[in-house]
Amino acid sequence: MPQLQPEKIAHRLEQLTELSVALGHGLGGEGRDIGPLLQRIVLLAKGMSGADGATLYRPADQGRQLAFDISVNDRLGIRQGADIGLPGVPLSDAAGQPNLASAAAYAANMRRSVNIADVYRDEAFNFSGMRDFDRLHGYHTQSILTVPMSDHEGDLIGVLQLINAKDDATGQVRAFSSTDQRFIEALAAQAGVALTNQLLISQLEELLESLVTLINIGIDEKSPYTGRHCQFVPELTMLLADAAHATQTGPLADFRLSENERKQLWLAGLLHDCGKITTPVHVVDKATKLETIFDRIALIDTRYEVLLRDAEIAALRQQAAQPQQAGDIAQALAREQASLREERDFIRTVNIGGESMAQADQERVRQIARRRWRAADGELHDFLDANETENLTIRAGTLTAAERAIVNNHISVSIRMLEALPWPKHLQKVPEYAGGHHERMDGKGYPRGLTKEQMSVPARLMAIADIFEALTARDRPYKKGKSLSESLRILGNFSLNGHIDPELFDVFIRSKVYLTFAEKHMHPSQIDSVDEAAIPGYTP
Question: Are residues 303 and 269 in the same domain?
Fold first, then answer.
């Protein structure tokens, strides 16, 4: 068997070194596709050994068999990744014992290389499948070298099989030399490390994505309304990101998102409200002004029932003492009870909350609060306590100033949670993208008071997605979902007053991102006719 000359050995060492350097550099890139790495390994093994063909097997079917992953053969014209039509190789027999009849399975099971000079004369392994292949394709397999690849824990990650080594001088098929075998084993060991690193990276990213899913499941179980928001905001964010990416004119003409930046933006969208997992559910899902663990309007209804009863008892006592005035007393009772019922209905109405509460209505609540009534303890009390009065006089929405501060704190918590994670280099923008959706272009947002210039485009576009989804959401317990035209009117005013980026808002309308989202996720009753020319801050 011919041995390699020193210069050939030196060349192979150089090839191994170059591969090592390339693999090291490749691990830091954006791409996590393992295919190009595997193809490079197969081609280098084939070229280094002078083989006519090379095949890479990968464990499949939960480790029960080896599947053809990459096949290359010069004589047959098989290119990278081509399917050569052979079935997978089982790693165990019918009795569940390790399959040692196949050279590839033997190498995998025993973690030992197999070097055969002539497969047609070999009696140690079953090459019937290979011979059938040869007959079908007019090929002749003679020499093979099969080398297992393992990870750092010794687990199988692949089997490299080379076919028909050729003599450099004559071109005739020869056996694989011991030097060939040692170099290919060195390559397999090196490739095993690289593959392991790539797989570990992929597994870590899968773990991260699973963690994101776990957090969102927790949020959804705690608050289904917030969970829905965390599902739709990333989708709407990516719609707007794609539209901005495609823009060819104007201030955003140079804006482009790489695949890695897209991935970071998507993750940021999923995690943008992760801090709400710490927000008390009775605050984040507060449906009415008096709701805590339950809606305290029932307590106030009971007080009105007491007032109605007391009025009736007082009237009956009067009628008993002054029977000649029974009719007048009954009429007075009817007027008093009607007034109490109207007042009760008023309190029920203001408890619901809304866009704005009139100052006169706030004052009426305060007057009602000062009425005295006798409770079950026999003592006189204010009809509404200080907390009830504060809640019922909320000007907009259902949250008090203290409760709103609790809700607003979720973004600070989100930022702290995200910045506490040891993000790898290619995901380090996630906290920045996610943490800016409550900032304003004029610097009046929270929590950091950032201006437009201090925010990236992805962070600014997520702010638009967050607001639009919140405006149109129809599943919130504290409000009805707004119509499409009303939501765009509000968003347009936000673009004029420095709340959102006017340039991204222009893309949002011009590219009809709003309509794409609406047709998929909004209720048909909300999708009314939109006159884009009438949208504030937008010029068709």
Answer: no
- For residue 166, the surrounding DSSP H or E stretch is strand 156-166
Contacts of 295 (CB under 8 A, 6+ apart): 287, 288, 351
In one letter, which amino acid is 83? D
163: left (phi over 0), alpha (psi -120 to 50) or beta: beta
In the chain, the number of structural domains is: 3
Query: Does residue 421 sit in the same domain as residue 528?
Result: yes
Q: Are residues 331 and 422 in the same domain?
A: no
Radius of gyration of the chain (CA): 37
pTM: 0.67
Q: CATH number of the domain that 257 lies in?
A: 1.10.3210.10
**Same domain (yes/no): 186, 318:** no
Asked if 507 and 409 sit in the same domain, the reply is yes
Number of other CB atoms surrounding residue 447 within 10 Å:
17
What's the rounded Cα separation, in Å, for the pair 252 and 245?
A: 8
Q: Containing domain of residue 272, as a range?
A: 223-284+403-534
Give me the amino acid identity at 516. Answer: T
CA distance 77 to 65: 26
Shared domain check, 109 and 141 = yes
- The Cα-based distances of 240 to 156, 466, 522 in angstroms read 44, 12, 17
The predicted-structure confidence for 142-189, as pLDDT tens digits, reads as follows 999 999 998 877 889 889 999 999 988 888 999 999 988 998 898 888
Quickly list DSSP for 101-150.
SSHHHHHHHHT--EEES-TTT--SS--HHHHHHHHHHT-----EEEEEEE
Residue 291 lies in a domain: no
User: What does pLDDT average to over the chain?
Assistant: 87
| Closest by CA position to 268, among listed 73, 70, 411 | 411
Contact 495, 505 (CB under 8 A): yes
Report yes or no on 252 lying in a domain.
yes
Report the alpha-carbon distance of residue 510 to residue 488 in Å, rounded. 12
Which residues 6+ apart lie within 8 Å of 214 measured at CB? none
User: Minimal CA–CA distance to 103: which of 95, 187, 94, 117?
Assistant: 117
Residue 6 has pLDDT above 80, yes or no: no
